[in-house]
Amino acid sequence: MADKDLCPCGSGKSYGECCEPIIKGKTKAPTAESLMRARYTSYEKQEIDFIINSCEEGEKIAEIDRQATEEWAKNSIWHGLKILRTEKGTEADEEGIVEFEATYTEKKTNLRDVHHEIGYFKKVNGEWLYSVGNIKPMTVVREGAKVGRNDPCPCGSGKKFKKCCGR
Fold it and tell me: Which of 48, 86, 128, 150 has an alpha carbon within 20 to 30 A of 144's alpha carbon?
């Protein structure tokens, strides 16, 4: 992606002046929201190291599953990020909350989904880190036609759906 292309995070800025410097480690995220935007963009760009490295570490913090994160990033078509609200998380704060929705389509199933989360962020040694999130369940909307029981299975096995993945 060229520097002049719009950033996937939806800020309206170019990628080169928005999330790229944060993802590439040239600058630190100044706010919790800017870190959230860079994390979303990292999923679209499959910058898994940034996603992992921008998480808070600690005894009570769950470790991120690199393989699952990488698979989700690679096997999804990312449609956009919508910031619903922020609490604190400014340059002067030590903690912040960002509620957001990330819309994507799972390539394998062609199901469009919205990941709705309230993310909690902390500033550790002057750097914003993602701490934990509460996921809000959403209704999944199918983008393609529904697969019938007697239709060929979309996985490509050559079997009928009911005898393969539709069990």
Answer: 48
Quickly list DSSP for 75-113.
TEEEEEEEEEEEEE-STT-SEEEEEEEEEEEETTTTEEE
160 — phi, psi (to 5°)? -70, 150
The continuous run of DSSP H or E covering 134 comes out as: strand 127-136
Using alpha carbons, list the distances in angstroms from residue 17 to 11, 26, 38, 166: 10, 11, 12, 46
Looking at residue 62, its pLDDT comes to: 62
- Contact, 26 vs 36, CB < 8 A? no
Percent of the chain with pLDDT over 70: 90
Query: How far apart, in whole angstroms, are the C-alpha atoms of residue 27 and residue 69?
Result: 24
Which residues are CB-contacts of 119 (< 8 A; sequence separation ≥ 6)?
A: 32, 36, 97, 98, 99, 100, 130, 131, 132, 133
CA gap 54, 119 in Å, rounded: 13
The pLDDT value given to residue 1: 42
List, in sequence order, every residue forming a beta bridge with 121; answer none if it has no partner. 96, 130
Res 148: pLDDT: 81
| pLDDT under 50: residue ranges of the chain | 1-3
Q: Can you state the percent helix, strand and coil of the chain, rounding each to 5?
A: 25, 35, 45
